[in-house]
């Protein structure tokens, strides 16, 4: 009972998050065709997604078949983008974004109307994060789910390494890594080669370990946001320590994202720093649910720690779709009725629903201090775009981890940031 109460409290506490811009298209978007059976013709809905795994394992296919039964004559086609953050920006610029897609987090809200169709208001009933992708009173995206971030781990791997309790300090975390390595188990999968997971050790970690949900937005008012002595330096040094001590996967440059889930499921790897959404993916890769645990990341040696509350990707409709009404039906079905939230291990965005994820009870038992993420300010995004720093991609963090002297890398990025910031104010 306590678990349900705390889970409900967690859901009720959520209310914030993520957010560069492309040249506006010159042509007007084609108007949507009238609703109906399409004159007896076959109709196709193209859906772009980052969930390549759910395409490959047939889960999305199950959603499609249920939707197609409700809409005779309709075929749902999925396109999976492995590097969604970078790939989708190119797709937007070439107007090859299909009918339904995930909204880029580094696209300013004022630019949403150039590429996306406003969503109907009724879809947002009881939905958290309703205004995160909104501009001038119109909403362009609805969150597909919500999540927090922590250490997802294999309990059998911990037991094999002699680790009796989940670490609650950074020193204990590194000691657990040492024991796992000695037992022949990969302590932590960074997924360095996949690139995008590195942002979880960067923007994500920095936002809550600082205790300030506006930390990233405040970078827009600093000439030197990166320093060895601030949250950025602390976060990156944790990762560099893991690499230097050999506590991470071998063959770092290879994209091992799918392999890593199998390794963690089998107990050949011990831990991820990841959102709760990955738990069901690890179980699908072969783990028993009871063998997978979840606890807040102890990023320092203090007695309590923060953890983030955030929406997942936002789903929207392409402005250039010729099937806008059908696309709206898919968005409503996908978010509210498909089962995607539970299948993916997300927390529901509806305030009245509770999570079905059992690992959340363990996470809550550590009593983390939750911080609601904030939408990136337009000023932050403008400076980052001008400085050619692709936030939330993991790309530049990958570069930082490969450089021998972090302070010199920070100096170079601060120089670019300062120039871009002053240019934005001129």
Structural write-up:
This protein is of the alpha+beta class and 426 residues long. The chain has two domains: 2-145 and 313-354, D-Maltodextrin-Binding Protein, domain 2 (3-Layer(aba) Sandwich); 146-311 and 358-426, Periplasmic binding protein-like II (D-Maltodextrin-Binding Protein, domain 2). It has helices at residues 2-13, 52-56, 59-70, 84-93, 155-160, 170-182, 203-209, 215-218, 231-244, 257-266, 278-284, 324-336, 340-344, 359-365, 378-386, 395-402, 406-425; strands spanning 43-49, 74-80, 100-102, 116-117, 134-135, 138-139, 142-143, 146-147, 149-154, 186-188, 269-275, 292-295, 306-311, 314-318, 369-372. The strands form five sheets. Strands 3, 4, 7 and 14 form a four-stranded antiparallel sheet that branches. It has a four-stranded mixed sheet with strand order 10-11-9-12. The protein has a three-stranded mixed sheet with strand order 8-13-15, covered by helices on one side. Helix 15 (378-386) crosses helix 17. The longest helix is centred in the C-terminal third of the chain and has 20 residues, at 406-425. The chain is globular. The model is unreliable at 1-39 (pLDDT under 50).
């Amino acid at each position: 009972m306590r678990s349900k109460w705390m889970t409900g409290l967690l859901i009720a506490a959520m209310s914030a998050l993520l957010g560069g811009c492309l040249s506006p298209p010159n042509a007007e978007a084609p108007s949507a065709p009238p609703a109906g059976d399409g004159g007896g013709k076959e109709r196709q809905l193209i859906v772009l997604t980052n969930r390549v795994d759910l395409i490959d394992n047939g889960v999305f296919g199950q959603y499609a078949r249920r939707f197609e039964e409700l809409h005779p004559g309709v075929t749902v086609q999925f396109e999976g983008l492995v590097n969604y953050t970078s790939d989708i920006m190119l797709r937007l610029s070439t107007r090859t974004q299909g009918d339904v897609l995930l909204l880029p987090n580094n696209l300013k809200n004022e630019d949403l109307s150039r590429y996306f169709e406003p969503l109907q208001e009724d879809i947002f009933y009881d939905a958290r994060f309703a205004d995160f992708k909104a501009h001038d009173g119109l909403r362009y995206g609805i969150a597909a789910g919500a999540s927090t971030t922590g250490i997802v781990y294999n309990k059998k791997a911990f037991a094999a390494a002699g680790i009796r309790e989940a670490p609650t300090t950074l020193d204990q975390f590194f000691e657990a890594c040492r024991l796992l390595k000695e037992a022949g188990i990969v302590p932590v999968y960074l997924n360095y080669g996949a690139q995008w997971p590195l942002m979880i050790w960067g923007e994500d970690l920095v936002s809550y370990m600082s205790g300030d949900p506006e930390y990233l937005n405040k970078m827009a008012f600093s000439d030197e946001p990166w320093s060895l002595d601030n949250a950025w330096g602390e976060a990156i040094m944790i990762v560099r320590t893991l690499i230097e001590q050999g506590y991470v996967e071998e063959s770092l440059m290879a994209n091992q994202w799918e392999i890593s889930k199998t390794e963690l499921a089998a107990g050949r790897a011990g831990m991820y720093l990841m959102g709760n959404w990955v738990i069901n993916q690890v179980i699908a890769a072969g783990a028993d649910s009871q063998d997978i645990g979840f606890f807040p990341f102890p990023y320092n040696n203090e007695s309590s720690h923060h953890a983030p509350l955030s929406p997942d990707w936002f789903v929207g409709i392409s402005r250039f779709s010729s099937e806008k009404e059908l696309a709206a039906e898919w968005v409503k079905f996908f978010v509210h009725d498909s089962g995607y939230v539970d299948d993916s291990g997300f927390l529901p965005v509806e305030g009245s629903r509770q999570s079905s994820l059992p690992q959340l009870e363990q996470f809550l038992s550590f009593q983390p201090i939750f911080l609601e993420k904030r939408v990136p300010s337009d000023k932050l995004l403008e400076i980052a775009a001008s400085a050619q720093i692709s936030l939330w991609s993991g790309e530049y963090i990958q570069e930082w981890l490969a450089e021998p002297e972090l302070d010199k890398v920070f100096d170079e990025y601060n120089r670019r940031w300062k120039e871009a910031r002053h240019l934005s104010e001129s």
